[in-house]
Structure formats: C-alpha cells, structure tokens
TrEMBL record:
UniProt keyword annotations, A-Z: Kinase, Membrane, Phosphoprotein, Transferase, Transmembrane, Transmembrane helix, Two-component regulatory system
TM spans (from-to): 20-40, 155-178
Organism the protein comes from: Tardiphaga robiniae
Protein name: Histidine kinase
InterPro entries: HAMP_dom, HATPase_C_sf, HATPase_dom, Sensor_HK_TwoCompSys, Sig_transdc_His_kin_sub3_dim/P
C-alpha cells in the first residue's frame, strides 16, 4: 500500500532522472520546432508565390484586353496558348471551356512523404481567370504554381531539425551518463566510508575527490571517523580500567574473606570441636553443638566456593590450562550425568595474564549459564589458538535457550571484557545447540 503511494520517479537513479530530463527537453524543442515550421510554412509559401500570382492576373488582364481590341481574337488566343506550352506542370495554362481538366500531378517530386505534405496544410494557390472573346467566355487561364521545391525545402528543414535534435540528445545523454557516473563515484566512496564507520572500522579514510560539496562531506566523515576512533579507544581503555578495578575489588574482597572470615570460622570450628570433646557424646547439649559444627563446616565450604569464584587462584598458581581442567572437573562433580567434551589448545599458555583471566571468566560464565539455564545433556568446551587470537566456545544441546537472549550480568560482563580487549562475542542458536563463541587477541592491546 505504502509502495503504491510512492511516486515511481522516486525510485529512479540519478542517471535515469537526468536522462529523462534531457529527453524531455529535446522532445519539447523538437515539438516547438515542428510547431513553428507548421505555423509559418503556409504563410511563407503564400508570400513566396504572391508575385507569380499577381503576374498571372496581369497576364490574364493583358490577354483579355488584347482579345477585346483585336479583330482576330481566335488567332491571338491560339498564338498565346502556343506560347504557354501545354504540359500541366507549367504554372500558367489555358483551358478551353468544356475541356476535361487534366488530373493534377503531385505537387511534390515524390521525395517527400504524403503525410508531411498533408501536415503542412499547403494553401490552394490555384487561380482560374476567365478569358473572354467578344464578351463570351471561351475558357480559363489557370495559374497553378509548382510548390514541390518549396515543400522539399521544408522537408529537408524538418529532417535537419529532427536529425540535429536526435544527435544532440544522444550526445548529451552519453555525456551526462559518463559525467554523472564520474560525479557519483565520490558519493559511492562516501557511502562506503559511512558503511565502514557503521561496522566500527575507523581506520580507513574516505578518498576526498569530486566536486567541493562532496569533498566537504568526505572531510566531515573523515573527521567523524577520527572522533569515533578516539572515542572508541577511550571507551576501550575505560572498559579495561573498569574490569581491572572490578578484578582488584574482587581480589580485595576475597582477601578480606580469606584473612578475616577464614580464621574466625576456623576458630569457631576448633572451639565447638573442643566443646563437643569436653561434653562427650549422647547428651542434648552435644547434639546442639554438633549442629553448630555442621553449620560452621558448611559456612567454610561456602566461603571457599565464594573465594574460588572471586579469585581463581589456580590461574596464577598452575596456569590457565590447569584452571580450565579444574573448572570442568567441578562440572563433573556437580552434574555427573552430563556428557562433557573438551578441547583445550596447549598453546593457550602463551596468553598474557589479562587475556588468561578473561578466557577463564568467559568459560566460567558460559559453563555456569549452561548449568543454570540450558537443561542440557551434552556440553562441549573448546579453546583454540589461531593467528595470535584465541577462540573460546561453550556449546550445549539444551532446549531452553531463547533465540535472542535477554542479556543479564553474565553475558553483559562477557561482552564488556571482550570489548575491552577488542575481541568479538557471538551467541548462536542453531541445530538444537546453543553456542557462545568468543574470540580475543592472544595479548591484550595497549
Ligand atoms: N547456555 C544457555 N542456555 C540457555 N539459555 C541461556 C544460555 N546462556 C544464556 N542464556 C540465556 O541468556 C540469559 C542471560 O544470561 P546472563 O548470563 O547474562 O544472565 P543470567 O545467567 O540470567 O544471570 P547472571 O547475571 O547471574 O549471569 C539467561 O537468562 C538465559 O535465558
Ligand atoms: Mg549467567
């Protein structure tokens, strides 16, 4: 419905519009030329034949006077007719009364098409002047000028007008086609530049060529690219800063938990154990203390788990490879029925510490999401080192994953970490599998 309402010409290319405009201009010029030719040609023919027409009248008057004054008018008339010649093509002819009028020959030489002659509206210039002998009409002096040369002249004029306009239209069309193509090239470069900006590529400049108006736009786009590039790099460093502050904070909290809460819990547990030992077993009091002991032990386990999440010690102690193995072993402990396959590239040890930390966090969140949301029976974990980049993939065959997930803290954190390192994040739902695919450089950018 909306498409029907849009005028058709709005879908035409600039080239098509200019060609139609030029075509319209040349067509109007042709029509105007033809109209002028048509309006003035009959007047012109009349004007051109006016002297001959007047001469014919004068000749007829002279003849009639001579015939009236003569005693042998028949002989004079015969001599006059002999002088005129007898072909119907002659402009002045004598026709006796009762003589059958010879069919009029074509006014043109046959080179001009009949439709053109008709279109010209050639005026009828024929004159029939009566010839009198002793007051009696003996015939007519007929004046019928041959217009073929004049009509042919108009026809040549028409052909020249048509030919020159068609030639000019073709030439103008060709020139505008080439010129517009050249003029549009800078606009195409500009559009490509803007498309690059949209994809986040701020490095390549637009080639500033073409007319000044387009050049100005190109310069503005290049400036915009510079600004966006600067903002993007500032944004990345802010993100890196934010993540490192986050990690530092986690480290501080884990240290506090370890140094403050750990000894306290240990002390409570030791004291409760001592109390239980003092009281012996089987009494009501020792049952209560036993429960306190169990609660303290559960608190210690929870504390260790929180510490583990906050600060995976293994990365620093044993390296990324072993930390990932530990993560996978924990999965097996938590969900033994899940079939976990993994492929850890040994070259992953070459990742620098920030990248190693990021890879670990990505896997940790990816795996946690599978356990939390997917309802999967199979999970596959993969890290691969290629051309100074690391590919991290966590896939599962769970059916609960949405096509477009609503990003929570986990996926947002993953994206932020990757953006800070100029990495890429993809969430893919295909063939019954959900895949989180991340790629990041082996070394963190400066
Ligand atoms: N492997 C997966 N299977 C199914 N759904 C998933 C999976 N990974 C992510 N999702 C969907 O994406 C959503 C967002 O995940 P995200 O990790 O950002 O948040 P969350 O896990 O819900 O909470 P948290 O902030 O604690 O991580 C989830 O709520 C879930 O619907
Ligand atoms: Mg999550």
């Amino acid at each position: 419905m909306t498409n029907l309402m849009i005028p058709m010409w709005t879908t035409w290319s600039l080239r098509a519009r200019i060609c139609v405009l030029l075509g319209g201009m040349f067509l109007s010029a042709l029509i105007a030329g033809l109209a002028l030719l048509w309006i003035f040609s009959s007047d012109q023919i009349l004007e051109e034949n006016e002297p001959s027409s007047r001469s014919a009248i004068t000749v007829a008057a002279g003849l009639n006077a001579a015939l009236a004054a003569s005693t042998r008018p028949d002989a004079i008339l015969a001599a006059f007719v002999d002088q005129l010649g007898s072909t119907p093509a002659d402009a002045i002819r004598f026709r006796r009364d009762g003589e059958v009028h010879a069919p009029e020959q074509g006014k043109t030489s046959g080179k001009v098409p009949e439709w053109f002659v008709k279109a010209l509206f050639v005026p009828d210039l024929a004159q029939h002047i009566p010839v009198l002998v002793q007051g009696r009409r003996v015939g007519d002096l007929i004046f019928e000028p041959d217009l073929s040369a004049q009509i042919y002249e108009k026809w040549i004029g028409f052909l020249s007008l048509l030919g020159s306009l068609v030639g000019m239209a073709l030439l103008a069309g060709l020139l505008s086609f080439v010129t517009i193509g050249a003029a549009l090239q800078p606009l195409r470069d500009l559009a490509e530049g803007l498309a690059r900006l949209r994809t986040g590529d701020f490095s390549k400049k637009v080639d500033c060529s073409g007319p000044p108006e387009v050049r100005e736009s190109c310069l503005s786009v290049n400036e915009l690219a510079l600004t966006l590039g600067r903002l993007s790099s500032e944004n990345r460093s802010l993100l890196r800063r934010m993540i490192s502050i986050q990690d530092e904070e986690r480290r501080d909290i884990s240290r506090e938990l370890h140094d403050e809460l750990g000894p306290l819990l240990f002390a409570i547990r030791a004291n409760v154990t001592a109390m239980i030992d003092d009281c012996g077993s089987g009494t009501n009091r020792s049952m209560g203390e036993e429960r306190v002991l169990q609660a303290v032990e559960a608190l210690q386990i929870a504390n260790r788990r929180i510490l583990e999440r906050l600060r995976p010690m293994l990365i620093e102690e044993l390296g990324l490879d072993a930390s990932i193995q530990k993560l996978l072993r924990d999965v097996h402990t938590q969900v033994p029925e899940m079939a976990v396959t993994f492929e850890i590239d040994p070259r992953i040890v070459t990742a620098d510490s920030v990248v190693a930390q990021t890879v670990y966090r990505l896997l940790q969140e990816g795996i946690t999401n599978v356990l939390k949301h997917a309802g999967a029976s199979k999970m596959s974990v993969k890290t691969e080192v290629t051309n100074e980049a690391i590919l991290v993939e966590v896939a599962d065959n769970g059916a609960r994953a949405p096509l477009e997930p609503k990003f929570g803290r986990g996926l947002t954190g993953m994206q932020e970490r990757l953006r800070a390192l100029e990495g890429k994040f993809d969430y893919i739902r295909a063939d019954g599998w959900t895949t989180i695919r991340c790629s990041l450089p082996l070394a963190a950018p400066d």
